[in-house]
Write a structure and sequence with these properties.
The complex is a heterodimer of chains A (about 500) and B (about 325).
Chain A (H helix, E strand, L loop, with lengths): L7 H14 L2 H17 L4 H23 L3 H39 L16 H16 L9 H9 L12 H9 L6 H33 L8 H31 L17 H7 L2 H18 L4 H20 L3 H19 L1 H10 L5 H23 L3 H13 L1 H9 L4 H4 L6 H17 L3 H14 L2 H18 L13
Helix pairs in contact in A: 1-2, 2-6, 3-4, 3-5, 3-6, 4-5, 8-9, 8-19, 9-15, 9-16, 11-12, 12-13, 13-15, 15-16
Chain B lengths: L1 H33 L12 E4 L2 H6 L8 E3 L7 H14 L5 E5 L7 H4 L1 H4 L1 H11 L5 H10 L3 H12 L10 H8 L25 H12 L11 H16 L3 E6 L4 H6 L2 H17 L4 E4 L10 E3 L2 E2 L1 H18 L1
Classes of the chains: A mainly alpha (about 500), B alpha/beta (about 325).
Chain lengths: ~500, ~325
């Protein structure tokens, strides 16, 4: 079950009604059972085993860390817990890749005979709750948090269904106290949660899946295109992945809010960032914070004597790890490496930037706009490696986007290849709808908070009949303009 | 909570009511489209050319008296059956159907791709779902591996939901009161494929043979029982309408034919012989080995307009002789 499957629209109201009519002391149980049912609906028993394994191991490791009598024992238990979580994560994320590699090797040696049976590489959600479990253990180890004694609360912290499949990665200190608060029904929370969910659904079904039509056409066979279509498809992909992931997050936050839970916001208008560092403060925020706290900071501390070069090295290693987390392919590794290099450059040339800013105390809007454009294009360049089917395809896109540009512009001037070069072999209606959707996104989605502020203002200003007409129009727009084929969430694979 | 429940129920009721009203209008428009005169051919049209891109490229209706082509690329017999059922129902003057019958028409992997590939299912169901009878819909429900395209099209074409209605040119023209054109209707088919291009390349032929006949393990995928079943239904349908049916095996470049797995040719011959034995009124015209120069081929498995002119002439003479 995912947020866009019809079953979910029966699931959450049913879960909410049972939750509402339950006593406070059993509400955690209702949510835990709902979360397990939600995960079980993926029909992959191994995932439930992984979830149970992470929950039990982390719970007892946390208790063990807190109860340890000596620092050595505390460290030992802590590392055992972290290693166990990493083993589960690596097992699920990379076991299939390992088996495939061994089969290729055995095939080469043994004349095409595969030694191991192929493994279904399903690992939806595993990395998110494993990371959350590791962050809990670190917080307990560093005495930032006390270990949770209530196993049910802890299990719910790991498996709460709105953020089980794709995050956000919650800190124990943010989530667990909310479980202890008695539930008070809040109409405003349910209403705004539903609106947020609807906005996320629109971003996914109408915008992201529509852009996917164009992106898949080009990136499915890059060699059939050169110049402008490669550039358009790359721009579209940048917004496809944003709407896909932030749409999911909005739906997760909206569902959480219906149950009176405040989850961490994962996106804050990332394509308006004026630097790569700012981009990472606005993109997949919960994950960025996680890698900053648990990978970058320890590395930076270790390399502290190398000053800026140490920081740069720590950044490269951190983002390399981030790339590998996305998948054991060259494309993801280069994507991570590129972001690491961008960040490192910004550290090494920090002095230059400071001097520039000193001279120009009040940077003009033009300079800011230039920085936004430059940052966006650097991000897009990295997205090419993230999206392309192979490294060869990625280099083809980069090469032919530039080399083929003049000839595609000439073709366009002659109006020879509008369908191929601009509409990317889709209908002109789909293309203009996609562009209109991006325009709407720019107007409405400065950030979820801005979107909510706009909704609040609309609510105060508009009479009931107008509001309800707008909401009904929104439902009709999703039905008419939604792309309901395919379209699994991109980040499920991670 | 009471306020929420009341508002929620009210909103859901209003939304459902609105969708029902819109669906009813769309369903009505779709019914009107199917009754349009664009699907009725002139009295003089007595021959229909049906099938996939092979007869579409090889048989030029302009050179065959009283003929009209409703062929469409990659159209399998499952879809052709429903299309013919509809067109024969609307055109009682049709006396003859020339149906493409080539090796790839029976190849399991290629013809049943729409049951396993979501992309193919999406493309084909969107074009043909409106024509499917109950049995066809049930077959899809049971056999299609990705149910999403099935349910989306079911909601759209059976229950009238306005899903991506802006793409349905036929419906929009009907709503605006504009006359329907052939190109507005997705299932109608592109008619004769006119092309002077000629490019017979080995690499391209290898890729096509792989696409038509080989499965993921690059072995011959066998005969599609579904396509054979629907071919039989087409023959029975023509018999019921008193229509003369000719199975037509269009020309292939010798180099292309040599690449086809031998088992596929044997299987094809076996099915053909069984059908000819079972249905004595059935005709079969074999132009597959017709001697044509390279310039008459658009690619390895399609003739171009030059080749079509030659083979349509020969086909016309054969039909005249048979009567």
């Amino acid at each position: 079950m995912t947020f866009t499957s019809p079953l979910y629209f029966l699931f959450w109201p049913a879960a909410f009604l049972v939750f509402y009519f339950s006593r406070d002391k059993y509400r955690w149980l209702v949510l835990l059972l709902a979360s397990l049912a939600f995960y079980a609906a993926l029909k992959a028993p191994s995932l439930l085993i992984a979830l149970t394994g992470v929950t039990v191991l982390t719970y007892f490791s946390g208790r063990g860390v807190a109860a340890a009598m000596s620092p050595g024992r505390k460290t030992l238990v802590f590392w055992l817990g972290v290693t166990a979580n990493l083993a589960i994560l690596i097992g699920f994320r990379y076991f299939a890749v390992l088996i495939e590699g061994l089969n290729v090797l055995s095939g080469a040696i043994g004349g095409g005979r595969h030694v191991f049976a192929a493994v279904d590489p399903i690992s939806i959600g595993v990395s998110y709750y494993s990371f959350q479990a590791i962050s809990y253990l670190v917080d307990v180890y560093l005495d930032v948090e006390k270990p949770e004694k209530h196993f049910g609360y802890f299990a719910l912290y790991i498996s709460f269904f709105p953020r089980l499949l794709q995050g956000p990665i919650e800190r124990a200190g943010d989530f667990l106290p909310q479980l202890r608060q008695p539930y008070v029904f809040c109409y405003e929370n349910v209403r705004s949660g539903l609106l947020l969910f609807a906005w996320g659904l629109f971003k996914k079904v109408v915008i992201s899946d529509r852009l996917a039509l164009f992106v898949n056409e080009v990136y499915g066979n890059v060699h059939a295109f050169s110049g402008l279509p490669l550039i358009i498809a790359t721009y579209f992909y940048a917004f496809q992945i944003y709407c896909d992931f932030s749409g999911y997050t909005d739906m997760a936050l909206g569902t959480g809010r219906i149950f009176n839970f405040k989850l961490t916001q994962n996106f804050d208008n990332p394509y308006r960032a004026t630097s790569i560092a700012m981009f990472w403060r606005r993109w997949h925020i919960s994950f960025s914070r996680w890698i900053l706290d648990y990978i970058f900071k320890p590395l930076q501390f270790r390399f502290r004597y190398w000053r800026d070069w140490g920081t740069a090295l720590a950044l490269v290693i951190t983002f390399l790890a981030c790339g590998v987390w996305h998948g054991a392919t060259a494309g993801f590794v280069i994507w991570g490496l590129l972001h690491g290099l961008y960040m490192s450059c910004s550290v090494l040339y920090r002095g230059l930037g400071k001097r520039f800013r000193r001279k120009k105390r009040n940077p003009t809007a033009l300079i800011d706009a230039w920085r936004v454009i430059a940052t966006f294009h650097l991000v897009c360049l990295a997205w090419i490696f993230f999206r392309a089917r192979s490294l060869a395809d990625a280099f083809y896109v980069i090469n032919y986007a530039m080399v083929g540009l003049p000839s595609s512009l000439v073709r366009l001037a002659k109006r020879d290849s509008l369908v191929h070069d601009i509409y990317l072999n889709q209908s002109n209606k789909e293309f203009f709808l996609a562009v209109a959707c991006l325009g709407l996104l720019a107007v409405l989605a400065r950030a979820t908070t801005a979107h909510e502020a706009a909704v609040r203002a609309f609510r105060q200003w508009a009479p009931v009949w107008l509001r309800w007409s707008a909401y009904l129009g929104f439902v009709l727009a999703v039905v008419v303009f939604g792309v309901f084929y395919g379209g699994a969430f991109i980040y499920f694979q991670f | 909570m009471k306020r929420l429940v009341v508002k929620f129920v009210l909103f859901v009721t209003l939304a459902a009511g609105m969708l029902l009203a819109v669906s009813s209008v769309c369903g009505n428009l779709r019914t009107r489209v199917l009754k349009d005169r664009v699907f009725v051919f002139s009295e003089g049209t007595t021959t229909l050319i049906a099938g996939d891109s092979h007869p579409q490229a090889a048989v030029n209706p302009a050179l065959l008296p009283g003929a009209e082509s409703i062929c469409e690329g990659q159209e399998g017999y499952f879809f052709t059956y429903h299309k013919l059922k509809y067109f024969l129902g609307r055109n009682p003057q049709i006396a003859r159907v020339i149906l493409g019958f080539s090796y790839q028409n029976l190849a399991r992997r290629y013809q049943e791709l729409f049951l396993s590939s979501e992309q193919e299912a999406t493309r084909l169901l969107e074009s043909y779902f409106v024509l499917l009878d109950d049995e066809g819909v049930e077959l899809l429900r049971d056999r299609i591996s990705n149910k999403r395209p099935y349910y989306v099209n079911l909601l759209k074409f059976r229950y009238g939901l306005p899903i991506q209605i802006y793409r349905d040119k036929d419906l929009l023209r009907e709503a605006l009161g504009a006359a329907l054109r052939r190109e507005d209707v997705t299932f109608f088919g592109g008619g004769f494929h006119k092309s002077e291009k000629s490019s017979v390349e080995g690499k391209q032929m290898d890729a096509k043979v792989r696409l038509y006949f080989q499965d993921e393990k690059e072995t011959y995928s066998g005969v599609s029982t579904l396509m054979v079943e629907y071919l039989k239904r087409i023959i029975q349908l023509c018999e019921e309408h008193g229509v003369d049916l000719t199975l037509y095996n269009a020309p292939l470049h010798a180099s292309f034919k040599s690449r086809i797995p031998g088992q596929a040719i044997t299987d094809f011959a076996q099915v053909r012989d069984q059908l000819l034995a079972r249905f004595p009124k059935l005709h079969y015209v074999d132009h597959v080995d017709e001697s044509l120069p390279n310039e008459s081929f658009g690619d390895g498995d399609h003739v171009n307009s030059l080749g079509a002119a030659v083979v349509t002439g020969r086909l016309a003479r054969l039909i005249q002789l048979s009567h």
